[in-house]
Amino acid sequence: MIPLVHDLADETVLIFGGGDVGARKARRFAREARVVVVAPAFTAEAYGGAERVREAPAPADVPDWFDRVGPALAVAATDDEAVNDAVEEAARERGVLVNRADHAGPREAGSVVVPATVRDGEVVVAISTGATSPALARELKRRIAAEIDGTGELAALTAAIREELKAEGVDPGARRRAVAAVVESPAVWKDLGEEGSNPRRTADAVVDAALGAHE
To answer: ∠ CA 166-167-170 to the nearest 5 degrees?
Structure first.
């Protein structure tokens, strides 16, 4: 499988199953998309603001839910394999991405795996072990979270610098070198998140030095 980043803004995610797995999926996708969860009961505490519909669909009822909701992604997270099979079949017939939460290992074409993720602002790192070791994915997530602390701020900072240099007419090669110098600067990294520091001021000094070195 090849990892991709999918923009689900203004899209709908349809989840079958209201247990802990369905709730976890709902919280994940509700950050960006409209989420509809269909289940006979909702046993978790939080669903991220998803729409919850209390219903126990039989396999024959599943296609109607697809037609009513029009999802971009469907999640099969029930404890009924027949219902999960119906979700997968309905998704494939309609060209909709599908995530089988009850299956591990190799997937059919069109299937997606929802990886463990670490987020700092707009910086997102996805972790997958091919469903072979959830424990390893959790440990990697813990370690990576510490490594990327502050990178969201740095991403926003370098985006602003890049746009400003572009507006000033700095040529693309020089812009790339200047931004690279900022993200590689130990001084900038040290200032990120440090109380009383000024990462922007430090970054501007790095940019000036990088541009001056190639004049």
So the answer is: 45
d(CA 68, CA 58): 16
Phi, psi of 14 (to 5 degrees): -105, 120
For residue 172, the SS3 value is helix
**pTM, two decimal places:** 0.77
For 138-161, the pLDDT digits (tens) are 999 999 999 999 999 999 999 999
End-to-end CA, the chain: 46
State the pLDDT at residue 104: 65
Residue with tokens 């490594």: 147
Domain boundaries, the chain: 12-114, 151-212
- What topology is assigned to 12-114 in CATH? Rossmann fold (3.40.50)
C-beta of residue 37 within 8 angstroms of C-beta of residue 26:
yes
Q: What does the DSSP 8-state code read for residue 7?
A: -
